[in-house]
Amino acid sequence: MLLTIVGITSTINAQIKTPQPSPAAKMEQVVGLTNVTLEYSRPAMRGRTIFGDLVPYGEVWRTGANANTKITFSDDITIDGKELKKGTYAVYTIPNETSWEVIFYSDATNSGNPAKWDESKVAAKTTVQVYPLPMKIESFTMTFDDVNSDSAVLGILWENTYIGVKFEVPTDKTTMKSIETAMAGPTKNDYFQSATYYHTAGKDLKQALEWMKKAAEGDNPAFWYLRRMSLIQADLGDKAGAIATAKKSLAAAEKAGNADYVKMNKESIAEWTK
């Protein structure tokens, strides 16, 4: 648009910004050692009946609004016992009253449902139970629930419905491979991290203790190294050894001024002395 004021001509570019009715959302979650990214749009109920009406039962749904809902895995994962290769997938669903079919589709470039469904692009699918909610969820919501080192649940909530799709990640396989590589020329920290993983994962505690002894060799071992060693000794049933190591960790933590480790060591020594 041209505007002339007192002989001066200028151009005004009018640009109106309005919010999207179904705003975009992006979530990133680390599950174990696997990076998972979720991108989707969030339509609202706005007084409408959703499932069985706006979203018909028994039909493929884009699972959200606008472009494809997309999920990206940095590693090969497992869904319902089936391997899903690392990469990006569109998430389609077929809602029904008591269960949903959830589909991971290898072509994530569609705007909504594909013009022609290609069954060869279905990389994985599973059927999950519907859980009714005691309250209404106004905006379509996706979540990462029950996140631990080996798995998580992809949650979908809208209206008064929740469904969850559990997926498993190759944390143990990846960690064991990195431990094997590190043990070819390990540092003290490699020993510590390997022992910590073996301890927390409930693997061979005797091996974990051997690694911790190597990590704590030499003068002035770190108080957190000694703390881990004492916990492993206690779990192996060596309470006397655990107390002796915890006292060393306590002294080192006091010298370093670390109140958290001082407290934890004192509590453990008291517990193991009973």
Give the low-pLDDT segments: 1-8
Overall structural class, as computed from helix and strand content, comes to alpha+beta
Largest sheet: 6 strands, antiparallel
Mean pLDDT: 93
Distance between the termini: 85 Å
β-strand amount: 25-35%
Topology order in helix (H) and strand (E) letters: EEEEEEEEEEEEHHHHHH
Shape: elongated
Q: What is the count of β-strands?
A: 12
Number of alpha- plus pi-helical segments: 6
Summed up, what is this model?
Helix content is 30%, strand content 33%.
Strand-helix topology:
Layout: E1 2-5, E2 8-11, E3 24-31, E4 34-41, E5 70-73, E6 77-79, E7 82-84, E8 87-95, E9 99-105, E10 122-129, E11 131-145, E12 151-168, H1 171-182, H2 188-200, H3 205-215, H4 223-235, H5 239-256, H6 259-273
Antiparallel strand pairs: 1-2, 3-4, 4-5, 5-8, 6-7, 6-12, 8-9, 9-10, 11-12
What does this structure look like?
By secondary structure, the protein is α+β, with helices and mostly antiparallel strands. Helix content is 30%, strand content 33%. It is built from six helices and twelve strands. The strands form three sheets. Strands 3-4-5-8-9-10 form a six-stranded antiparallel β-sheet, with no helix packed on it. Strand 1 (2-5) and strand 2 (8-11) form a beta hairpin. Helix 2 (188-200) runs antiparallel to helix 3, helix 4 (223-235) runs antiparallel to helix 5 (239-256) and helix 5 packs antiparallel against helix 6. The longest helix has 18 residues, at 239-256. The radius of gyration is 27 Å and the shape is elongated.
